[in-house]
Amino acid sequence: MxxxxxxxFIYYVAAAAGGAAPPEMLAYIFVGSAFYMFVFQxxxxxxxxxxxxxxxxxxxxxxxxSPISYYAYIIGRGFTQMxxxxxxxxxxxxxxxxxxxxxxxxxxxxxxxxxAVLVLxxxxxxxxxxxxxxxxxxxxxxxGGMSEGIAGVFYVFTGVIFPLSVLPVWGxxxxxxxPLTYWFEALRRVLxxxxxxxxxxxxxxxxxxxxxxxxxxxxxxVSLLSLAVFRYVEHLARxxxxxxxxxxx
Amino acid sequence: xxxxDARVSxxxxxxxxxxxxxAYPRVIGAHRELSWIFFNTLLPLLSVAAYVFVYAAxxxxxxxxxxxxxxxxxxxxxxxxxxxxxxxxYWEKEIGNLxxxxxxxxxxxxxLGGMAVGGMVMTSTRAAATLILGVLIFQIVLVVVNPLLLAxxxxxxxxxxxxMGMLFASVYLLYGREAWNISNLLQEPVFLGAGFYFPVQxxxxxxxxxxxxxxxxxxxxxxxxxxxxxxxxxxxxxLEWAFLPxxxxxxxxxxxxxxxxxxxxxxxxxxxxxxxxxGRLTQRHL
Amino acid sequence: MKDAIRTKExxxxxxxxxxxxxxxxxxxxRVIALDRVDTQVAEGELFGLLGPNGAGKTTLIKILATLxxxxxxxxxxxxxxxxxDPYPIRQRINMVxxxxxxxxxxxxxRENIWMFSQFYGIPSKVAKAEIDRLLxxxxxxxxxxxxxxxxxxxxxxxxxxxxxFVTDPDIIFLDEPTLGLDVSAxxxxxxxxxxxxxxxxxxxxxxxxxxxxxxxxxCDRIAIIDNGRILACDTPERLKGMVKREVTVxxxxxxxxxxxxxxxxEGVQNYVVKEEAQTNRTSLTFILEDDAPIGDIMSEVLNQxxxxxxxxxxxxxxxxxxxxxxxxxxx
Lengths: 249, 286, 331
Hints:
The complex is a heterotrimer. By secondary structure, chain A is an all-alpha fold.
């Protein structure tokens, strides 16, 4: 919630400083920020699972050598994180609409679309989260830097809290290759009463059915990549003896 | 070894050596695992960039990007205090170091001080990288109004902040495993409260009377006034967003620094005594 | 000779009242870890503490190392009260525990030990020279620049030993220092301890161990502790002498014609005969009232035209002392 409130303050500061800040833009920021909690929670959760088990509780070796697949284990933990994040998202949206009067709605006609988008997006987020979590096998403990930073890539390049058009051209192209860009666009279709004038024309032009197709194909690709990355990183970690290292200093 | 070589009668010398000893792994450790450059410098810049782009999308004056970059620079210190100061004594207990520290003749403040200064030095690299890259990438114009006052405010802010971290370190020992959760809980609200990405005066401007009290309340976090004062001294064109005059903020920060370090000392002695009485100082996983 | 350590009615009770530091879900229970312990260790002594898990050994060491306060009674280390004067004690002591994971994995062996030496205020140059000397003595020199997290268990424990001894303590507490180590690493550590105390007459070692042989081999005196109470405290020889028991003699002979013939010998309380078909030998275990019947037994063997291949008189061991006092072996 704090992260979302920071953005609300930024919005009002910008408005007070003479910026172009229509209420639709606040809704745009608010919805993006609320659903970004899923992404952050997935990444931070994965980081916490692996680094926590490894350095804090030092139980990773026992979990790792148990007959369950570690990949399945952290996916399971990932889903738990999603449930926690889901409650947070609902609370934030309710506060935004109820207390702050932000123009957030729900287009009931798009309910099936919304459900499909939500499920696809969450699976994509977890798959990416697991791959990124796996990389922490190879890295030392540097505070919260890891999850904070990687989540930042998605924060900047997927149009979560500002339209991609604000980015330099290379950044816009990069963002168009990230599946979550389309996820956030699809969610905004359902939850924003009106689009702000700053919204991306490129994304607005994509029909809902195409958004669904993009997300479904992305899920297949991302899942395969995630499994491959995790396996490779796990192999490297075992090779280098880093599965149960402790790196405090 | 000559007995007299080893035993130090001057506590100042002893504590200075202990201080250096504990700072050493902090400074050397971070640079030994090079993954920190990527994770602690380049990636955090992205979060900062996101806020810069939000201001840009909302058509705010360009100087606000400077506000964000400065806030993002100071985030490094807050994260270090939270994760590597406040949670550290508990961490040391889990590793098994705490009992060896508590058994050594040095002052516990030398230990915490070494940890803090080591952390500051290590984090300064990350902070400097964020600042330099941020200034270059977003073409921020810095106008240094009063370099001496700026340096003083920066240093006092760090002393107060790490003093608070030292205080938290003792308090965390009480909560054992929940330490991780406390750090998680504190991280984001402080980003909001201390005004890392927007001027703290906006509490007052946007929320009116109650907002003023919020601003006063969050001024207990040393970063709040430190950031506000540094912004005044670097971005004079946005002086209308200042909360209090910079020199007043410096005085308040000095008081905060003294109070936090004093409280940290008291808390540490209290916790040590309590832990020795209850026998939990040295047992792991409690 | 001065006392290095002295305890009077030293008692430590865990739990039972305050809950400030107790996790919410932990049950409240009162455990008497040390129960009116009186003991003294002289300067220059290598003093052992033998006891099963939970006997109170580590609690005693923690109190003496100023990590824990006594509930009642008193303890002095190097003449200073552990509760009132911890600082002068800390300048004179150090501690090494078995299975210790202290230090930081990213530092090298040398750096790690150096860091700990700084907490005792040892000048860097002096500390480094001493660290190098000790690393060589423990045959850890080759691993001086290896990161701590890459050390094996044995190497790590040797590093811990260097950490403990580099500050040249007057009194060192060694809490199961060879726990879980292989034979050669454990031997290196035992040799070092023995050598250190022989070279430094005024130094004192308080050692807890699970290994009877280690206590027997190293310690000048041993206290047997159980349920927080010291049950016996003396030299290993005298402790073994405490076990009043019959003499056990094991005999191996060529096959005897009449193995039952020993019944009539006076002083033989009992004996067990085992015929070894493969080797064509007889193995006899006698329980005797004392040494006197041994001559008559030998004569009877010879009378039967047989030869004694081997004879072994079994002395009481510390283990038997321990079992007779505590009622169970060390687990």
